[in-house]
Amino acid sequence: MIVLAIIIYVLLNLAPKWMLKEKYIQMENDFNWKIPFIKLTGFVFSFFIAFLLIFGITKSTKDTYIENKNAIYGLEFNNTLEEMGFQDSMKIKSINGEEIEKVSDIVKRIIIENGDVEVSVEKNGIHNKIVLRDSDKILLMQNNKDNLIVPIMFDSNGENKIILTTKSFGFSDVIDRFKTLCKQSLILINSNPLAYKGISGFVAISKINNFRGYLMILSLNLIIIGILNMLPFPGFSIGNCLISTIETLRKKLYNKKRKRIIGWISIFLVVGFIILRLI
User: Fold this and answer.
1) How far is C-alpha 211 from the chain's CA centre?
2) Angle at the Cα of 226 from the Cα atoms of 221 and 230, rounded to 5 degrees
3) Which of 129, 77, 87, 135 is nearest to 107 (CA)?
4) What's the longest Cα–Cα distance across the chain?
5) Nearest to 192 by CA among 131, 242, 133, 241
6) What is the pTM of this model?
7) What are the tens digits of pLDDT across the range 193-223?
8) In whole angstroms, what is the distance from residue 79 CA to residue 147 CA?
9) Which DSSP state fits 67?
10) Which residues, in sequence order, are bridge partners of residue 139?
11) How many CB atoms lie within 10 A of CB 91?
């Protein structure tokens, strides 16, 4: 998916040149102020297309889930979470002071929070707090294919099933998903080498087994590319925009071949740095 996202970004960057043709060259030679903004095309539309994909995926589906407040009989935890201090029939009240809407969001929220995570829990009316470290997050990500947390569906007599919630997603859900993907992208780009060593894929938090899932991964990759292009270095959108602005102000173009070489060197250095941090 990252290759497809890169292709989309490159095509978006080249689109203005293909559409304007000779007019683009003329504007560049005339030091037209539109050129610096045109340099931002790929950067802006990477985010825009990612948002449209998230919007389409979100609005075209209905969500059936268990609200955390409706998990009145508590939760069941796998061995990994039990070793961290969680106990069956325990309820999770909040994560870092924020209430959780869905049971299915609990693990994801724990993983994407920065630094230590304070989980407020309650069992038999007794409230407690469990603090999870980066090493605990590693274990959760390594076991992401398991059912880490399962709500207890019936009371002790095997009756009175808890309430299931079904609803259509709203625009606020689209925004929340977009924010979550942006947060995941930042963590991937600026990841702690110890925290994510040996993890097969951070996006594996969400099990990808359908077309919508793959589109969501494409959205994530487009956001990653968009964020990288915020770097003020040659070869990246913001950097190219700054160079073009300087050229427009001084009414003189830099050597195009030299700009390309410096741009590619800059891209390889940044990408190489990110890869090294993940090793």
Assistant:
1) 18
2) 145
3) 77
4) 81
5) 133
6) 0.65
7) 444 444 444 444 444 557 878 888 899 999 9
8) 10
9) B
10) none
11) 19
> What element of type H or E holds 168?
strand 165-168
Q: Which residues contact 66 (CB under 8 A, 6 or more apart)?
A: 102, 103, 104, 151, 162, 163, 164, 165
Structural domains of the chain in order of their starting residue, each with its CATH number: 2-37+230-278 (no CATH), 65-165 (2.30.42.10)
Place of tokens 């702690």: 192
Q: Which two tokens stand for residue 192?
A: 């702690």
User: What are 97's two structure tokens?
Assistant: 């002071």
What is the helix (H) or strand (E) element at residue 272, kind and residue range?
helix 256-278
Looking at the DSSP bridge assignments, the partners of residue 166 are 64
pLDDT digits (tens, 9 = 90+) for 223-263: 999 999 998 999 899 999 999 999 999 998 888 889 889 98
What digits encode the pLDDT tens for the residues 97-121? 999 989 988 988 898 888 899 999 9
Counting residues of the chain whose pLDDT is more than 70, the rounded percentage is 91
